[in-house]
Structures are given as structure tokens and as C-alpha cells.
Specification:
- By secondary structure, the protein is α/β, with parallel strands linked by helices.
- It folds into three domains: 8-208 and 370-451, Metallo-beta-lactamase, Chain A; 213-360, Rossmann fold; 467-554, Ubiquitin-like (UB roll).
- The protein contains 15 helices and 30 strands.
- Strands 9-8-7-4-3-1-24-25 form an eight-stranded mixed β-sheet. It has a seven-stranded mixed β-sheet with strand order 10-11-12-13-14-21-23, with helices on one face. Strands 17-16-18-15-19-20 form a six-stranded parallel β-sheet, sandwiched between helices.
- Helix 5 (183-192) links the parallel strand 13 and strand 14 (196-200).
- The N and C termini lie far apart (65 Å).
- The structure holds zinc ion (ZN) (2 copies).
- Residues 80, 82-83, 168, 394 line the site of one zinc ion.
Length: 555
């Protein structure tokens, strides 16, 4: 592809704009329908309890799939699920090389072991602070701090100037793992002029700063000292700094640390491989910990968001094969509620409470610091980088709109608030949305990926809320009933509601009788009349609109 003077610098989020989760960003150089593309991050989000049989959701990559030959690379900013979790599902549709730093690459490789094509994925490991080129873009990694090792901002040099894609970040002077953020480099980039900054909006409503990971150790040591019996600490498996902090606090209280949960193990292995957990820091695994006295152990487990399959939920409901908690034990939630998870967390906490297990969370004591920048940190970032254009991402609409207002306060001339699918053209003097391309969500339903607003998921949800009914209607050549219609339903009639069942059967029979002669030859007309009669019945009797199926059989 040759460059022309009409070439545009494009930014297009297909996920993560208008939501916290499933990030997928594209940078393009060329025309909307003929560009070279670089993808930044490819993450998932978790389904809420209102989505039956669906655990995870990811962006629909259809737009970029169409231009797959022009997709030069996927660059991963860090190893959080909302940034790389969709790679094991969507890479076969994209088939581009992946660039990541050592820890992120290590986490990704572990995930890819679980798919047959995992070994085919070309992964280029870039050192921290490293530089590399992707088609028309020259990239430099700038180390920041977050709640996982190796969070990187991408300084992307384009033909129009530099774009700083921050990824997820905070300014933590004592991050426990890794170095503090490279503030000097950010200032240097600012001095050299940054055209646009695409930046994390998660905590724009939090005043002050996010607090330091390093400050937690004292308070966790004190809290654990006050606990009798077993203590379980639930946090994100990828928060290696938190794991270290909790382990230190446990050791200060002469407790051994026991790890539960597969994702926690994988993360610890990745962290050991890349040198983020010291050799002499010992973790026991749940199968080796049965002999430990209750007051000499501390369990670190996944499931702080109430995820039903994670260790903590299974321990709480008593169906974990190796770990149990009893009355008088304590669970510390070393995390915050991610928006959308409120219901599952409170269900989990109620289950624990009913069993006499004490709960300590962020509202009770200092047990957590966020990995995202609060207002003062955002302001400091704008003062360092001084971009001409601000494009907030990684937030719900209200976060991004507030972030844009904050950027204005920080003297940023142009702000653009995108939604998923917003094609933004960035020029030397400004930026604007020039198109809205298709975007959507795919749900992992069993082993398949299906569109979340498609028929399958719609009917599944409808059946959950409104029930499901099948009518089998056998008619003869004159469209008279050959036999009494049969009704089979799920979630509508109770066992003893025979009268209601008979009433539905009567309604079906009446619908058929009332059908004009000419319509009786037409199966569609018959089915449609029966369906209308059934719907009317369920609406009138139950105020429900169940999923309705009719089997029409002619004999
Ligand atoms: Zn994120
Ligand atoms: Zn993150």
C-alpha cells in the first residue's frame, strides 16, 4: 500500500468504549476501507447473572476480520483478562503476530496451551521500555504501574505525530513488584509533543490519588493479627503485588500461605518465570495444606467478584473438594466491586455470613488500593504529557464524559468521547468521529461463540424469564383435530394445574375451529393462528410471553 496525502490516522475502539471490560482498540493508517491496522488489546468481559449459560463475552471483531490481511499486529498492553482474555477465542479469526512484554507473553502462552492451535501463534516478546515497528507505526513501551506486573503505555509514532495509548495505569511510588512509573519518560514525550492521548477513565470519579500498594502491608498485617482461626484473602490472581503483600502479612503473623484456584497457580508460575516472586517466598497448594492448624494458615483464593466457579464461591457453598471454612473463620475481600458484579458478590457474602464466617471488605478497613488513576493522577498525567487531543476510553459513558471534562480543565483543546464502533480521524490539528462501523458482542455459549443479541441468546433469556412451551397438534386432511393437542412446557404450569392445561388445549382447538376453510390448507396459517391463541392465553392468565413452539403434524 502506498501512502497518499489523503491518508488518515484512524482510531477505532471495537470494545471497551462505553464499558469497563473487553478492550479492543484499532489504530489505522490509510482510508477507512483501505488501511493498515494495528490492534491494541483483545479482552473479555464477564457476563452478569441475567445472562443464562454465558460466562464470558468478547467484542465482535467482524469489522477487522474483513480486513484481516491488513491487520499487521496485535499489541498487548498488559495481561489482564479485559485486555488479552479473548486471544484464545478470536485469534484464529485474525491470525496476526502478537507483541507483548515477558510477563504478559508468559501468561498468554499458558492460556494458549489449552487450545490446539496455541503453538501456531507468533508471539514477539518485547523488553520493558523496548521499541519496535508495526507497519507505519513506530512503538515505544513506557512502563507504568497498575495492579499486575508490566503495565505498558504505548507511545505510537505515526506520520501525523505521536499518540500515547496509556493502557491501564496509576502512579504508584511503591508498586511492590516492578519499578515505579517512568514519569521522566512521560515528561520527555510531552516535551517532544504528543498529538493525542487515549487514556484510562475507570476511576475518574475518585478524588485524590489511588493509594500505594506498598501501604497495604501494615494494615493487612494488623487485620490478620486480629483474626482467630482460618483466614482467607480473596483477590485477583493477576495481582502479584497483592499476593506478595498478603504473603508478607501472613508470615508476619506466623501463618503459612496456601493458594487455591487454577488461575492463581498459573499467574504465580508466570510471575516466578519472569522473576516477580522471589525464590524464597514459599506458597503451599491446597492439596498439601490439610495438616495445617486453623490458626497457622492463610488461604489466598480467587473469586472476589462472586464468580460462581471460582474457589471462594465453591468454598463458601461447601463444595470445594479440599478447602473448607467454618464458623469463626474470616474472609478478607482484598478487592473492590467491579460494576456489574454487585449481585453475585452480595450473594457470596450472604452465604458466608449465614455460616458464621466473618467478612472484612474495603468498606470495613484498608484492604485494597485500586490499580486505576484517580483524579489527581489523571491531572498529573495531563500535565506531563500535554496532549493536543484527549480520547477517553476504558469507562462507561459517564466515566468517559467526565474524563473529557477533566481533560478540558487540564487545557486539552480537543476531546472526543467514542463509543464502540466510532471511527475517529486524528489530524495534525484535531480529531472527529467520521463514521460508525458495526460493533457487537459475542458470548461464549458452551464451546461456541454466538452474537449476544442473536436469536439463540435472546430465546434462551426469554425462556428463562417467561418459560417455554411446545404444542403438538395432529390434524387430518380437512384440518380437523385428529387427536387432542398435547402441551409440554418448562417453567409455566405447576404439576397440579390440570384445569389450566385443559384450558390451553381448548384454546388451541378453538383457534383451529375458527379458522376459515381456505386457510386450513396452509400450514403456516394454522400454526400462526394457534400461536396467537396460545400467546393470548398465556398473556391473559399469567401475564407472560413464553417461547412458543408448535409442531403441526398432518396425518
Ligand atoms: Zn482494563
Ligand atoms: Zn488492567
Amino acid at each position: 500500500m502506498t501512502s497518499t496525502k489523503d491518508d488518515k490516522l484512524l482510531f477505532l475502539p471495537l470494545g471497551g468504549a462505553g464499558e469497563i471490560g473487553m478492550n479492543l482498540n484499532l489504530y489505522g493508517w490509510g482510508q477507512e476501507d483501505n488501511a493498515q491496522w494495528m490492534m491494541v488489546d483483545l479482552g473479555v468481559t464477564f457476563a452478569d447473572p441475567g445472562m443464562p449459560a454465558v460466562d464470558i463475552i468478547m467484542p465482535d471483531p467482524a469489522f477487522i476480520e474483513e480486513y484481516r490481511d491488513d491487520l499487521i499486529a496485535l499489541v498487548l498492553t498488559h495481561a489482564h483478562e479485559d485486555h488479552l482474555g479473548a486471544v484464545p477465542y478470536l485469534w484464529p479469526r485474525l491470525k496476526c503476530p502478537i507483541y507483548a512484554t515477558p510477563f504478559t507473553a508468559s501468561v498468554l502462552k499458558r492460556k494458549l496451551r489449552e487450545v490446539s492451535w496455541g503453538k501456531d501463534v507468533p508471539i514477539h516478546v518485547i523488553e520493558l521500555g523496548g521499541t519496535f515497528s508495526v507497519g507505519p507505526f513506530d512503538l515505544e513501551l513506557v512502563s507504568l504501574t497498575h495492579s499486575i506486573p508490566e503495565p505498558n503505555a504505548l507511545a505510537i509514532t505515526t506520520p501525523y505525530g505521536m499518540v500515547l495509548h496509556t493502557g491501564d495505569w496509576k502512579f504508584d511510588p511503591d508498586p511492590v513488584v516492578g519499578d515505579a512509573a517512568d514519569i521522566d519518560r512521560l515528561r520527555e514525550l510531552g516535551d517532544a509533543k504528543v498529538l493525542a492521548m487515549v487514556c484510562d477513565s475507570t476511576n475518574v470519579f475518585s478524588p485524590g490519588d489511588s493509594g500505594s500498594e506498598g501501604d497495604l502491608q501494615e494494615s493487612l498485617t494488623r487485620i490478620i493479627a486480629s483474626c482467630k482461626n482460618r483466614v482467607a484473602v480473596s483477590c485477583f490472581s493477576s495481582n502479584i503485588a497483592r499476593l506478595k503483600t498478603v504473603a508478607e502479612a501472613a508470615h508476619n503473623n506466623e501463618r503459612d500461605v496456601v493458594i487455591s484456584g487454577r488461575s492463581m497457580r498459573n499467574m504465580i508460575e508466570a510471575a516466578r518465570e519472569t522473576g516477580y516472586i522471589p525464590e524464597d517466598m514459599v506458597f503451599l497448594y491446597e492439596e498439601d495444606a490439610g495438616y495445617l492448624p486453623r490458626d497457622k494458615m492463610l488461604l489466598i483464593c480467587t473469586g472476589s467478584q462472586g464468580e460462581p466457579r471460582a474457589a471462594l464461591s465453591r468454598i463458601a457453598s461447601g463444595d470445594h473438594p479440599r478447602v473448607s471454612l467454618d464458623e469463626g473463620d474470616t474472609v478478607i475481600f482484598s478487592s473492590r466491586v467491579i460494576p456489574g458484579n454487585e449481585v453475585s458478590i452480595s450473594q457470596l457474602q450472604n452465604t458466608l455470613s449465614k455460616r458464621g464466617i466473618k467478612i472484612i471488605d474495603w468498606q470495613d478497613d484498608f484492604v485494597h488500593v485500586s490499580g486505576h488513576p484517580a483524579r489527581d493522577e489523571l491531572t498529573q498525567m495531563y500535565q506531563l504529557v500535554r496532549p493536543q487531543i484527549a480520547i477517553p476510553v476504558h469507562g462507561e459513558a459517564r466515566h468517559m464524559i467526565e474524563h473529557a471534562a477533566l481533560a478540558h480543565e487540564c487545557q486539552v483543546k480537543t476531546t472526543v468521547v467514542p463509543q464502540n464502533g466510532s471511527m475517529i480521524s486524528i489530524t495534525k490539528t484535531g480529531a472527529e468521529i467520521i463514521d460508525l462501523v458495526p460493533s457487537g458482542r459475542l458470548a461464549l455459549e458452551g464451546k461456541r461463540l454466538v452474537p449476544i443479541d442473536g436469536k439463540l441468546i435472546r430465546n434462551r433469556r426469554k425462556a428463562l424469564y417467561s418459560g417455554f412451551v411446545v404444542a403438538t397438534v395432529v390434524i387430518d386432511g380437512n384440518a380437523e383435530l385428529f387427536d387432542e393437542p398435547q402441551i409440554t412446557d418448562t417453567g409455566l404450569l405447576d404439576e397440579d394445574e390440570i384445569e389450566l392445561e385443559n384450558a390451553i388445549i381448548d384454546a388451541i382447538a378453538n383457534a383451529l375451529e375458527n379458522l376459515p376453510k381456505k386457510d386450513r390448507r396452509d400450514d403456516d396459517a394454522i400454526t400462526s393462528a394457534i400461536r396467537i391463541a396460545m400467546r393470548r392465553f398465556y398473556k391473559k392468565e399469567f401475564d407472560k410471553k413464553p417461547v412458543t413452539h408448535i409442531h403441526l403434524v398432518r396425518v
